[in-house]
Amino acid sequence: MPKLQEEDTKTLEIMYDQQLVDDIVYKGLAKQEMAGDLEIYKEYHERRDAIYELEQEKRARKFKELDNDIFNKLGYDLYVRGIFDEYPDIEEVVEEIHVRRATTRQNEGSNVVDEGKKVIIRLYPELFIEDGREIRRVLRHELMHVSDMMNSKFKYNVNEEFSPSPMEDRLMRDRYRLFWDISVDGRLVNKGLETTATREERKREFDSFFSKIPDETRELIFSKMWEAEEPMAHDRMVELSKDNNKVLALAAGSRSAEELIEETKKLGPLPGTTCTLCGFPSFDWAEEAAEDEDIVKVLKEDFPDWKPQDGVCSRCAEYYKIKAGKW
Asked: What sign for the dihedral angle of Cα 269, 274, 278, 284?
């Protein structure tokens, strides 16, 4: 009878930045000491004291081995491995996971490199020291981003160019990031999983970006994004981040996109909307210029069809202030 060969089992290799490990071990042991749980705390210090008895050139490697061992004994590695089990699509493809230290919560994030073979995740050390619930939420959120990046239909482009203007580029990237976060957290929450933000929290962020869109329309747009079962493609989110009219078009149903756009124009232009005078996107609208009769008079000499609700960008406002003798 032929001998059956054992199936090869792939073990996901997770590599932690040593500075991150050292920081987590130091803070984790301090927490245990405060709680009166001294078993691992005493073991650590006994082994560390013994290392000082070794020759100096051997100490650095032994200190590193000690911190890695205590990191695992404190159970911190299980946080990461446990969440990866929820993403078999990543485990099947990725060969290495590199977990690095984020200097702040705002710097947390993830990326895929080496043609999808390596994943880099940046985590804030304090996440490990808490009860494990928060780091699981953060990891789940980040790995959903990774899963999207590895999805061929998503067509992620890490080198995407949004705008040559630094101010516009920042706002467009912030919008793109928000759209993606809404998609990620919506899919997770709708599966009954905890993530970094609730529907209410993401809705508040969305409202702050698009406050001039009427409430009912804004709710409809947000709901479509939040409830979508599939991720919105990268190119589509880039389009939305650049053009508010395309965001409004998401609410089109019984009403046309043109009607929604006209309704919103009555409230004034949104940040990033194209100025009808110069043709450039603007994030700085001069509302006082659109309300000044003298400025409006000279402006309408050049643009007879212009209406106050169309808005005047700050650049055009400067020009027509001078032309109206109000500079």
From this structure: positive
